[in-house]
Amino acid sequence: MATRLMFENSCEVGVFSKLTNAFCLVAIGGSESFYSTFEAELADVIPVVKTSIGGNRIIGRLCVGNKNGLLLPHTTTDQELQHLRNSLPDQVVVQRIEERLSALGNCIACNDHVALAHTDLDRETEEIIADVLGVEVFRQTIAGNILVGSYCSFSNRGGLVHPHTSIEDLDELSTLLQVPLVAGTVNRGSEVIGAGLTVNDWTAFCGSDTTATELSVIESVFKLREAQPNAIVDEMRKSLIDSYV
Amino acid sequence: MPRRPTRRRRMLNPQPLTFSPFARSVAQIASIHVDRCQTHKSKDQKGSPLNSKDKGIWKHTLEGKNDLSESSEEEGSGGVVQADFVFFDPKLDDFHGVKILLQTYLDDTQWDLSGFVDLILAQTTVGTVVKIEGDDDNTPFSIVTALNLRRYKDHKCIKELKEFLLKVCLEKDVIKDLRLFMGEQANDVGLLVSQRVVNLPPQLLPPLYDALFDEVSWATEDEPTEELRNFFCFKCYLLVSKIYKHKNANQKNKRNLKRRSASDSGDEIVYIKPEDEIFHKLSLWSFSFPMQTQQVETQELKNYRLMGLVMAVEAAKIPTFRQELQSLIVET
């Protein structure tokens, strides 16, 4: 189910939060209702962690992660790094990387299997992404924009990209990512998908300006209507429990 | 906002590197000289001029919308840019730009800002949006409009606005007047919304306000129904604005604000918008309240604190205001 919310009068929810299948990061300093909306949806399933990155609240645009790991820019302080390591589950590897392009959330978009990266990213960073996040990395542009993390958002089940993406590009990206993609907008016509929306396999959060049409597109492409967190957790449980006593 | 490859524009110099086209345009208009002022103007009028009065039918010429413009000459030296400003009626497409301009209208309260912007843009007969000619991004640089408080009293945004103003008004003698404004007298009160980018050339202000008050008076005659016509018969305008007050200034409630002399307010209050000084002088009553939004820390303003200012100005004083604004801008 997709939820609409606001962070201090701003509809750019994807800037102040980062949602993955294993954890959720939320910026500090917002009103309690922002935090509690996330808690209400996610508390039983995954940890919701309040943090800042380098003293900034724009954490969604500075970091990138999936169920395997979380990558932080070099501006992250030691205390923040420690706090994240303590709060996140053990299977999530938290790493701070030295990369000139420090807004990792704007440069990289990923799900649990594939990542799209900014064309100018260091080769070393690409290797770290592949290693820590356990993904295959592709350098791509989206509708001519190099900030792939800003202009698209995808999960393991579907993806939403910049509205001006051509059909050929859409097909190419869909083949690379192996998920169905749709070109659309969020927050009443905003093209910056990554800033307006944050999504994982069973839920999505978008700004309150998002129209009903946009919301229905989001719910259908990310297959949120049938998705229940228990379905996924049960699937994982089946593979974890190997004997009953 | 996208970092698109810089486009060559016919009129403008190479653009400074900023993160959005909006910021680029704002940075370019840092210094503009205005040479001439073309003030022939015509506006799109909605509805036929139904007229039961004896003085006959008023007809307003219906050419396109963008006939009022100011242009400036490029003088060759760096930092001077030529730009043509165009006045438009509010359109629904302007939603995002106008929303950004009104982001801190009510301090940092969470309120139905989107609904408020929708109201402003739906009222096409009264209201002006200023844009640059030939700008592909269609970014609004300024929005000016007047909303009747009673007409929209059931809208969530207006209710929240009223709650906010009543909450921040700490001056007991003013709060009575404010309550009347929001309640019984709401039909005669127009909320004057005027927001713009900080470096919009001041030469645009007299035509901008002229446009607003002219449209209000035209609307009282040209609107299709009696009810709509009455909505624009404002007796008073309510303004919500921002000022910088000196931190050591005497915070005691001054009863008659009209008596405050020019030299006092020069040191005590710094008006972000020049017309606010004139409005404040002519106001019926006013009050200020502290703001929580972070202010820009500059050397000149380090002893000043950002405050919100709410003023009530009688409609009868508007011609005086227009004259004084004209002379103020001409002098500077």
Structure explained in plain terms:
- Chain B: It comes from Citrus sinensis.
- Chain B: This is Protein BCCIP-like.
- The complex is a heterodimer of chains A (245) and B (332).
- Chain A has one domain (2-231): L-arginine/glycine Amidinotransferase, Chain A.
- Chain A is 34% helix and 21% strand.
- Chain A is built from eleven helices and 15 strands.
- Chain A has helices spanning 13-16, 32-42, 59-62, 78-87, 104-107, 123-132, 148-151, 167-177, 193-196, 212-221, 229-240; strands spanning 2-5, 17-19, 24-27, 48-51, 64-65, 69-72, 93-96, 108-110, 114-117, 136-139, 152-154, 159-161, 181-183, 197-199, 204-207.
- Chain A is globular and about 45 Å long.
- In chain B, 31% of the residues lie in helices and 18% in strands.
- Chain B has helices at residues 21-28, 95-101, 113-122, 156-168, 172-182, 205-222, 226-231, 262-268, 274-282, 318-331, and strands at residues 36-38, 69-71, 85-88, 128-132, 142-148, 189-196, 236-246, 269-271, 285-290, 304-314.
- Residues 1-17, 30-76 and 251-266 of chain B have low confidence and may be disordered.
- In chain B, helix 6 (205-222) runs antiparallel to helix 10 and helix 9 packs antiparallel against helix 10 (318-331).
- The longest helix of chain B has 18 residues, at 205-222.
- Chain B contains ten helices and ten strands.
- The chains are: A alpha/beta (245), B alpha+beta (332).
- The interface between A and B is medium-sized, with 16 and 13 residues.
What is CATH's topology name of chain A? L-arginine/glycine Amidinotransferase, Chain A
Q: Sheet bearing the most strands of chain B, described?
A: 10 strands, mixed
Alpha plus pi helix count of chain A:
11
Q: Structural class, from secondary structure content of chain B?
A: alpha+beta
What does the main sheet of chain A amount to?
A: 3 strands, mixed
Query: Helices and strands of chain A, in N-to-C order?
Result: EHEEHEHEEHEHEEHEHEEHEHEEHH
What level of helicity do the residues of chain B show?
Answer: 25-40%
Oligomer: heterodimer
First and last CA, distance of chain A: 36 Å
Radius of gyration of chain A: 17 Å
What is the average of the pLDDT values of chain A?
91
